[in-house]
Amino acid sequence: MKNYIEVFARVLLAQIFLVAVLITLSQITSNPEGYAAYTGYLAVHGLPGIFAPLTIFIQLVFGLGLLLGYKTKACAYTLAVYAMFIALFMKLQEVNGLIFTLQYLAIAGGLIMVALHDKMACSLDNLKK
C-alpha cells in the first residue's frame, strides 16, 4: 500500500506542472497575441523573453518525466529548483505573494523528498532493472 501512496504523491506533484503548462499553451495558442502576452507577463516580473520557451520546456519535459517516473531524481531536482525560482522571482511580487511563495517552496520541499526516495513503484526507472 505504501508504494501506491508514493506513486500518488509523485503524480500529484507532477500534475501541478503539467496542468500549468497545458493552460499556458492553451492561452498561447488560442490567441494570435498569446505568446507576446506570455512574454509580456514574464517581462513584468523582470524576466527576458528567453524564459518563455524555457519555462514551457521545463514544465512539460520534467513534469512528464516525474509523472512517468523516468529519471525521477533529475526531474524532481530540476522541478524543485524551478519551483524555488518561481517562488522567489515571480510569486513574491504578486498580491498575496507571500502565500504563493510559501506554497511553491513547499512544493519544492516535496520534490526534494521525491528525489531522495526516487525508487518508487509504477515508474519507468524500475522497469530498467
From TrEMBL:
It is found in: Membrane. Coiled coil: none annotated. Its main location: membrane. One of its GO terms (cellular component) is membrane. It is a multi-pass membrane protein. Keywords: Membrane, Transmembrane, Transmembrane helix. The chain crosses the membrane at residues 50-68, 75-92, 98-116. It holds the Pfam family DoxX. This is Inner membrane protein YqjF. The gene is yqjF_1.
